[in-house]
Specification:
This protein is of the alpha+beta class. Helix content is about 15%, strand content about 45%. The chain is built from 4 helices and 15 strands. It has a 15-stranded mixed β-sheet that branches. A hairpin with a 5-residue loop joins strand 4 and strand 5 (about 95-100).
Length: about 260
């Protein structure tokens, strides 16, 4: 049970992995992909649709499974863009905070905590992880900067598929973008030689004229191990004045990985 809890807490940390407010609309539906659109134009449109905000807050419903056991929780979620991602389970039983420098969480039920860098999340997901990758993952943006490479494009299942023209020696990556809003429909990172695969699927909603995820499904596979994280966004609000209280309780046992 300890291993399940540690993996679950890592999933929670990943999913911190976020005076205007607006109720969410129904999830967005897809339009028709245009075969004449170039990869450069698709990438340009993707970055034009990136949500502009200072803070984002609301509720997240998280379900985590490692194939043997499943756990679920609803948490409070707060993000200050480019600076901090924070979550808190009811009555502060579990809290987690991610900054560009660190990943930290604690669990009052087991009197334990983790405080370190992104190495833990990298091991959990089987690929290198940093703050920008986690933030982009949570916002429906490409986890890598698409403007730094050249891509070939295809249309698959009415989405724009982007593949680097120059193969990476360490990993393979594919992006699939929705034709109506140019947000990420699916992104896949894999290291086939090591048996590591990461797939992230998205559905979207509009909140205060900004497009953000409605639901995210993360599937991480390494050998015979499979972890899944399902995330549902609720009652999201932009640009509230927020604080991010976080202090590891005294006497808790540090998780050593």
């Amino acid at each position: 049970m300890h291993r399940i809890s540690s993996l679950f807490m890592g999933g929670l940390a990943l999913l911190l992995l976020f005076s205007m407010s607006c109720k969410s609309t129904k999830p967005l539906t897809s339009g028709e992909a245009n075969p004449a659109l170039s990869a450069r134009k698709i990438i340009q449109r993707h970055y034009q649709t990136e949500a502009n905000f200072k803070t984002l807050s609301g509720k997240l419903k998280i379900n985590f499974s490692d194939g043997e056991q499943s756990q679920g929780v609803s948490v409070s979620f707060r993000m200050k863009k480019d600076e901090v991602i924070w979550i808190s389970a009811p009555v502060g039983v579990v809290k987690a905070r991610v900054t560009p420098e660190s990943v930290s969480f604690y669990n009052r039920l087991q009197n334990e905590y983790f405080d370190g860098d992104f190495q833990y999340l990298s091991k959990l997901l089987g690929t290198e992880v940093d703050f920008n990758l986690v933030q982009n993952l949570l916002l429906g943006n490409a986890v890598l900067d698409l403007r730094k490479e050249r891509y070939s494009n295809t249309i698959e299942n009415n989405t724009y598929g982007l593949k680097p023209k120059t193969a990476n020696q360490l990993y393979k990556i594919l992006f699939f973008l929705n034709p109506d809003n140019f947000k990420i429909a699916k992104q896949q990172i894999s290291q086939p030689e090591q048996g590591q695969f990461l797939t992230i699927d998205y559905k979207y909603q509009t909140v205060a004229d900004r497009i953000i995820p409605d639901r995210i499904n993360v599937l991480a596979e390494k050998g015979n191990l499979t972890n899944t994280i399902d995330l549902e966004y609720r009652n999201m609000e932009f640009n509230r004045n927020l604080n991010f209280p976080y202090k590891i309780p005294k006497g808790f046992k540090r998780i050593v990985l």
